[in-house]
Design a protein that fits this description.
The complex is a heterotrimer. Chain A is an all-alpha fold. Chain A contains nine helices and no strands. Classes of the chains: A mainly alpha, B alpha+beta, C alpha+beta. At the B-C interface, helix 1, helix 2 and helix 3 of B face helix 3, helix 5, helix 6, helix 12 and helix 13 of C.
């Protein structure tokens, strides 16, 4: 099987498998986030669970990190190899005639998303780790001890319009990335055979609804704090 | 109509090559694109210059020899055709037309617009066949009924003419549409199932060895393919390869 | 007795091949690996021969001028391949296929060869299916058949409109398997420029590497020529641009007799010519005649109006249309053999009834078929009171399923929708029945030199039936040559490898080199195409669908004249040691300029009309067949085999008398 993952198609598969994982992750992440729009309590409880449950923290979180890293490292490796497969560029190439902008620019939408993830790490994740594992405060409570801190923090993050703007842009790029990536992943594992149209429609729905959900959450809190 | 042509000229494999401008006049809209190239070459021969070398043979869209990247697209702006079937009515008087060879590391230029596509040959040799010797007593052709839809799908995959437009139009210079079509043709037929495992492994391995890029499912190949080979064939090849590996595993 | 020995075995016709195979000399497997065979050309005949010979254990070197064997022009055959399988249960048999082929060939083919062809036809289908050729199937999963011109049964197997392509890809895959095994050395982008004879036997070839321009010597114990026909002598034909007669002509000059060069097939259903710039003609499969009805306007004034673009075909009322094939040949109607259909079209167009600006086109109309299929479909789907539009839609869907790719191709080229307005067609040179003379073993008059497929003369007589070319190519390559060549090679098991440094190789290479240098240093003023077009015009006008003594004599003189001018004034740019397409063309056209003259000479001595060869002096003067071609079996039931003597005009005629023991000689009638 190791031979398989060294083949071009094997790598495509690996890329698709990590994509599936990330696609599922996005759904869960949004499911948690969206609760903040209608129920502060529910959001706090879910966040606390996610942030402190050992299975998630020490089981799924490393897998997630590996998935993300793998997906973008593999993406870069393949991009480099693919670029190298055409040593002399066309003098004139009309890519728009036969393929979508999204499909031709996955590396760029991917890079923007990567930049966002870095920002997200600095913004949410590192302070989170700091609180929980450096300072050892696993309570999830506000400094004054009055209830959970998660919702409060979330609202606070979306005050700055510049940050909200960057957030929105990143999710638009994610939508573009998914518009090609979703069906592409299914195509890579050969799951589109005979149901390509259906898969494309599901892909479109997913790629618009999920990023839109994140954007709605951000804007909601920006205008309602 | 009168046209300006920007054509890639390269004396040989080692030459660096460059784009050169030419003018042709009084081109009829009923001419095929290659007939327009004939006019240019006749003009060049008569003025003592070397004509532009380009591959072509049957001139009816089936041999797969012609291979021009015209105005940024493999086989030019029309759909479902090869360069030899492209007609000048697709262009307007005064147009500038850019003509380049297929570009891919695995398809090195031999001269001008002629490229070396023997990488495709080696992929086919790696497994693009059913191992059956010629004899007068092969089993009767009707002894294995094949469902019509399978036969039809196999035919659709087999319609590939091996021109290389898929590689030329893919941003990654991937050959997966070509290989997928051949793998599919045999995978769909009972005769081909016997060797399916080794075939897909060997053909994919050879494809990788030749230096083609990886498929990122942009679908450009499918749009530019003169024979309408679909991405389903790539999906099928991907499945076949996994199946092949699981069986052995 | 003639110098020609056809070597047809004795015995009843149905046992000849089997008995012969049983008694033939074989080469044992251990010895086969010490024997080399060169196969030039990788179409259906060459490809299947190369693959099969390699499977048997011989060392094969195969040559193709294209960049892959898969691109040989066999790939362009559309309609199908005949085989006497009788899957349809309509009374087909080996004998009937044999009979149809001999009759269709107007009784100018060798009976024993044709019978053998019919006999192995069924094996071809089995072999191809085993290779994975995706023939069309019906809903029960069994193979489907269609009917073709000139016969009364359905025996044609097909793979959409791309049968030639699929069969060639079958051969190609078989070749690839042998290339991978190291049993075939494949030389792509190589052109054979001469054959090398040692002690009277063919022992090798000189080939030019078309990429580097290098001349290469290749030796072998036998050489097989499978380079197709010479239709491009007309400049415009349905052949590929690169299709050429060089290999065949070179072996002719080295002693192989050229047989029946005047037997050329003009295919009735091609897309008409649109202008002088035209580089080739495109064939529309003959299978279209199954559903299309051929007509021209019945009134001359309507035809004139159409030619001037003032009237559309759809505006002509049913009673003002002349379905001339149905009128003249009620029994076969639109499905008469190709030569008959072609001449009938020419007759109407010459009389002024042509339907495009050049006056050289007739209609092929699908309206009736669309209506018929529409009604049929409505019935099947239980649609009552279907509107006319609905019927048309249903009918068009059936036509699309059958001929979709052809219709699409037509529309791309002509820019008219053939579902709505009738197609225009006109005859074009398509296939050459004539070729290198071979005996029953497919060996030429030079020992060790074989010729198979379209390049030889043997099976189609004066006219080839539709879907028989693929059959012959594969029969020769898969099932005939691999046996018969062993008989010759069994004497060569002790010869050992043939060295390429002998004086024969040296001299032949020198001749080839001198000719190349001549072209490059000639400094003439006119391009190769200039001469080729002039040759083509003479051939089409005077040695085309209809020939007479005066025209043929003129043609011979004119071709000679063009040839002389060519050698004085041809201009070939570029160098010898590089890819040089103009140089390639120059060599090919030089050979066509000689072949064309022999072609006209052959047509001149054959003072009868038979098959594709129509002499205006030889027509029926009265009775039901008035105006139809008149064959002369008393004086011309022979194969004309020409021996080269320095100039094409000086060629010496040898006759192989044709004997018909199993079929009674009859004037063809499709009435």
């Amino acid at each position: 099987m190791s031979g398989f993952f060294n083949s071009s198609i094997g790598r495509k598969y690996a890329m698709a498998l990590s994509a599936f994982f990330l696609i599922i992750f996005l759904v869960i992440h949004l499911a948690v986030n969206i609760t903040s729009v209608f129920s502060e309590d529910l959001f706090n409880q879910l966040s606390h669970f996610m942030g402190t449950n050992p299975l998630i923290q020490f089981g799924l979180q490393p897998v997630l990190i590996f998935g993300v890293v793998f997906h973008f490292v593999m993406g870069f490796v393949l991009e480099r190899k693919n670029k190298g497969a055409r040593n002399i560029k066309y003098f004139k190439n009309n890519g728009a005639a036969n393929s979508t902008w999204m499909s031709r620019n996955m590396i760029y939408s991917g890079l923007v998303i990567l930049a966002f993830i870095v920002l997200h790490f600095i913004d949410f994740w590192i302070p989170e780790l700091n609180t929980k594992y450096v300072q050892g405060d696993m309570s999830g409570l506000l400094a004054d001890g009055e209830g959970f801190r998660y919702f409060e923090e979330l609202q606070h993050k979306f005050v700055n319009p510049a940050r909200v703007g960057a957030y929105v842009v990143a999710f638009i790029l994610l939508a573009l990335h998914l518009l090609h990536g979703f069906t592409s992943a299914f195509q890579s594992v050969g799951a589109t055979m005979g149901r390509r149209k259906v898969m494309q429609n599901i892909g479109k729905a997913y790629s618009i609804l999920i990023p839109l959900g994140f954007i709605v959450v951000a804007l909601f809190h920006h205008f309602n704090h | 109509m009168n046209l300006t042509l920007k054509i890639w000229r390269q004396k040989g494999p080692q030459d660096k090559g460059k784009m050169v401008d030419y003018k042709v006049s009084e081109i009829s809209e009923h001419m095929s694109f290659l007939e327009m190239m004939d006019v240019l070459n006749e003009q060049l021969v008569n003025s003592g210059e070397e004509p532009v070398a380009f591959d072509h043979d049957c001139r009816e869209g089936i041999c797969g020899m012609c291979s021009l990247h015209i105005n940024g697209e493999a086989h030019g702006p029309d759909r479902g055709i090869t360069t030899c079937q492209l007609h000048m009515r697709m262009f307007k008087d005064g147009d500038t037309i850019t003509i380049e060879p297929w570009r891919a590391k695995a398809f090195p230029v031999i001269k001008d617009l002629v490229v070396d596509r023997t990488a495709f040959e080696r992929i086919q040799q790696a497994g693009g066949y059913i191992s059956v010797n010629t004899s007068g007593n092969t089993q009767d052709a009707n002894s294995i009924p094949i469902p019509k839809h399978a036969a039809d799908e196999a035919m659709d995959a087999a319609a590939c003419i091996g021109c290389g437009a898929c590689v030329a139009s893919c941003k990654n210079s991937s050959a997966m549409l070509f290989v997928g079509a051949k793998v599919s043709q045999f995978a769909l037929l009972p005769q081909g199932r016997v060797e399916a495992t080794d075939r897909v492994k060997n053909m994919v391995a050879q494809m990788d060895l030749e230096g083609f890029g990886n498929c990122t499912n942009t679908g450009a190949c499918e749009v530019e393919c003169p024979k309408g080979i679909t991405l389903e064939n790539i999906a099928r090849m991907n499945r076949e390869l996994v199946k092949a590996n699981l069986i052995k595993f | 007795m003639s110098v020609l020995d056809s070597k047809v075995p004795e015995g009843p016709i149905k046992d000849k091949w089997t008995t012969y195979k049983d008694k033939i000399n074989l080469v044992n497997p251990a010895n086969k690996r010490h024997i080399d065979i060169i196969v030039v050309g990788t179409g259906l005949a060459g490809g299947s021969a190369a693959a099969t010979l390699a499977e048997l254990g011989y060392n094969v070197k195969a040559f193709a001028y294209q960049d892959s064997p898969r691109r040989a022009h066999s790939i362009a055959a559309q309609g199908g391949i005949n085989a006497a399988k009788n899957y349809m249960g309509d009374g087909d048999s080996v004998y009937r296929l044999f009979y149809d082929t001999v009759k269709g060939g107007d009784y100018r083919s060798r009976e024993a060869n044709v019978y053998r062809l019919a006999e192995v036809s069924a094996n071809i289908i089995d072999q191809c299916v085993a290779q994975g050729v995706p023939f069309a199937r019906d809903y029960g999963g069994l193979l489907d058949n269609r009917s073709f011109g000139g016969v009364l049964v359905s025996r044609t197997f097909y793979a959409k409109g791309q049968t030639g392509q699929q069969l060639l890809l079958g051969c190609y895959s078989a070749m690839n398997r042998q290339i991978a095994r190291g049993k075939i050395d494949m030389y792509n982008r190589h052109e054979m420029l001469d054959v090398v004879k040692i002690d009277g036997k063919a022992r090798g070839i000189i080939a030019r590497n078309l990429i580097t321009g290098e001349l290469e010597r290749h030796s072998a114990h036998a050489v097989v020529i499978a380079t197709g026909g010479y239709g491009n002598v007309y400049f415009l034909s349905t052949n590929a641009m690169g299709s050429n007669a060089t290999a065949a002509w070179k072996i002719h000059k080295k002693g192989a007799f050229f047989a029946n060069p005047c037997f050329t097939q003009i295919h009735p259903t091609c897309i008409p010519r649109s202008g002088d710039y035209q580089s080739k003609l495109t064939l529309m499969s003959e299978s279209l005649r199954n559903d299309g009805r051929i007509w021209v306007p019945a009134k001359l004034e309507d035809a004139k109006a159409i030619q001037q673009g003032k009237l559309k075909p759809t505006q002509i009322a049913e009673e003002d249309r002349d379905y001339y094939l149905e009128r003249r040949y009620p029994a076969f109607g639109n499905l008469v053999p190709r030569d008959v259909a072609s001449r009938a079209a020419k007759e109407r167009c010459d009389a002024g009834y042509g339907v495009n600006a050049t006056g050289e086109a007739v209609y092929l109309d699908f309206a009736a078929a669309i209506e018929r299929y529409g009604k049929e479909q409505a019935k099947i789907h239980g649609i009552t009171n279907a509107s006319k539009e609905k019927l048309t839609e249903l009918g068009e869907a059936v036509i699309e399923a059958k001929y979709g790719n052809l219709f699409q191709m037509y529309e791309k080229i002509v820019d008219e929708n053939p579902y709505k307005t009738p197609m225009m067609i006109y005859p074009a040179t398509h296939y050459t029945m004539g070729g290198i003379w071979v005996d029953y073993n497919l060996m030429t008059t030079v020992p060790g030199l074989y010729c198979i497929g379209e390049a030889n003369f043997s099976d189609h007589g004066a006219n080839r039936l539709g879907a028989s070319a693929l059959m012959q190519g594969l029969a020769d390559g898969y099932f005939v040559l691999p046996y018969t060549i062993g008989d010759y090679l069994s004497d060569d098991i002790r010869t050992g490898a043939i060295p390429t440094d002998s004086k024969e190789f040296e001299e032949t290479e020198k001749e080839v080199r001198e000719r190349i240098d001549f072209f490059l240093n000639n400094n003439g003023t006119k391009s190769v195409d200039h001469f080729h077009k002039r040759l083509g015009k003479v051939m089409w006008d005077k040695v085309g669908m209809s020939r007479n003594a005066k025209g043929l004599k003129e043609a011979m003189a004119e071709i000679k004249q063009i040839r002389e001018e060519f050698w004085k004034d041809v201009k070939v740019p570029g160098g010898a040691n590089e890819m040089n397409p103009e140089l390639e063309k120059a060599g090919r056209v030089a050979d066509f300029l000689e072949l064309g003259e022999l072609f006209a000479k052959d047509a001149l001595i054959r003072e009868e009309s038979c098959g594709g060869h129509f002499r205006e002096e030889s027509v029926e003067m009265d009775g039901e067949q008035e105006g139809e071609a008149k064959r002369n079996d008393k004086d011309y039931a022979f194969v004309s085999a020409w021996e080269y003597k320095g100039e094409p005009g000086d060629a010496v005629l040898h006759k192989e008398q044709l004997e018909f023991k199993d079929i009674e000689l009859k004037q063809r009638s499709y009435k």
